[in-house]
Specification:
Layout: E1 2-5, H1 8-20, H2 29-39, E2 44-49, E3 52-63, E4 66-74, H3 83-97, E5 102-108, H4 114-126, E6 129-139, E7 142-150, H5 154-160, H6 175-186, E8 197-202, H7 205-214, E9 225-231, E10 235-237, E11 240-241, H8 243-260, H9 270-273, H10 278-285, E12 293-300, H11 315-318
Parallel strand pairs: 4-5
Antiparallel strand pairs: 1-2, 2-3, 3-4, 5-7, 6-7, 8-9, 9-12, 10-11
Helix pairs in contact: 1-2, 5-8, 6-8, 7-10
This protein binds flavin mononucleotide (FMN).
Flavin mononucleotide binds at residues 162-163, 165, 266-271, 310.
Length: 325
């Protein structure tokens, strides 16, 4: 289990336990003590199993757009169990939610020491890219490799998108951002290019409050803007209609654009298309023509709360090469 640790003394206790068990990497006592001391003031995650701390990770801001993976340690006996990967995923999500664009990490360049070669491979497997080697940053025997990861690349945005159901900040969303989001939706592929999906951007306070009033149980009550997704049935060929696939592709594109622009959202479809047909009430508020159905609501706004990524099944359970099993 990954826990976000807030108490400074607990952070120091955990980082000491782990770093003192990893002297292959953290050999110099003075720099180890510095890591421990600094960890107390940094965003800090610990991997906990029963009573045992398996590892930890700290971030620090190195620029307005960049977080650095300041220090990370996983007990040797817990290597290759996905602990580091889970710690990093939690930290990456946090950095993305806070609006940072890059994460950097420094380590000793590959080809110097076996233990650090493993570290380099691990960072590359997380998706870090080589930025630069600084030969004199530490000393001649330890050339500093800087790795960087963009949180705004397509793959980075996909990895950091999660359904957000918390409160939103009361900051309006600029119209150009709403248009970018809507454009990302209508740019999606559609079966035989029938373009069966339309969207209505809602940012007028009065219209928003009328929609919020019909959302029962209430959701997205603090959202400063919403995208309402409409679909209509047009056959692509013969009796084949791909409208569901079309609007699903459009919604995912919009969710990614929303996250990339620094906002959060959630795909509210079940909530509004259930037996109570909230979608029809929304259609009536928005004067939607009869040939269209309202199928989804995407709130748009800056997150006021933190969120927790849901757990997903391991990749090996869902992805196969060449054949099943
Ligand atoms: C077709 C569809 C309908 C959904 N409807 C709702 C909904 O009505 N309410 C809600 O809170 N989340 C809804 N979601 C969001 C899912 O619950 C969410 O994607 C899932 O739990 C995985 O979490 P993640 O989006 O953070 O990866 C819907 C998602 C899809 C794809």
């Amino acid at each position: 289990m990954i826990r976000f640790i807030e108490n400074a003394e607990e952070k120091k206790k955990i980082s000491r336990q782990i770093l003192e068990a990893l002297t292959e990497w953290f050999e110099v006592e003075s720099s180890r003590e510095q890591y421990i001391e600094e960890s107390a003031g940094q965003p800090f995650w610990a991997a906990v199993e029963g009573d045992t701390y398996e590892g930890f990770l700290c971030l620090k801001e190195t620029g307005k757009s960049t977080m650095e993976l300041a220090v990370m340690g996983v007990r040797k006996e817990c290597h290759r169990k996905g602990v580091g990967r889970r710690l990093f995923a939690a930290a990456r999500d946090y950095a993305a939610l806070k609006g940072y664009e890059f994460i950097q990490v420094k380590t000793v360049r590959s080809g110097m020491y076996e233990d650090y070669d493993i570290t380099n491979e691990f960072y590359k497997s997380l998706g870090f890219k080589e930025l630069e080697v600084l030969p004199d940053y530490w000393d001649e025997a330890n050339p500093c490799q800087i790795y960087v990861m963009s949180l705004k690349s397509a793959v980075g945005t996909i990895a950091t998108r999660h359904s957000y159901r918390g409160a939103f900040m009361q900051e309006s969303v600029p119209e150009e951002d709403l248009i970018t989001i809507a454009r990302s939706g209508i740019d999606a592929p559609s079966g035989c290019n029938k373009q069966t999906t339309d969207v209505i951007i809602v940012n007028d306070a009065e219209v928003l409050s009328r929609i919020k009033a019909v959302l029962d149980p209430p959701v997205a009550q603090t959202a400063p803007a919403m995208i309402v997704v409409l679909t209509r049935r047009i056959n692509a060929y013969r009796d084949r209609c791909f409208a569901v696939q079309d609007y699903s592709a459009a919604i995912e594109n919009m969710l990614l654009a929303i996250v990339e622009l620094g906002y959060q959202s959630c795909w509210y479809e079940g909530h509004i298309t259930d037996e109570d047909r909230i979608c029809d009430k929304i259609a009536s508020i928005l004067n939607v023509p009869a040939e269209y159905d309202v199928v989804c609501l995407l709130p748009v706004g800056k997150a006021a709360d933190d969120f927790h990524a849901p757990s997903k099944k391991p990749l090996s359970e869902r992805v196969k090469f060449n054949r099943w099993g």
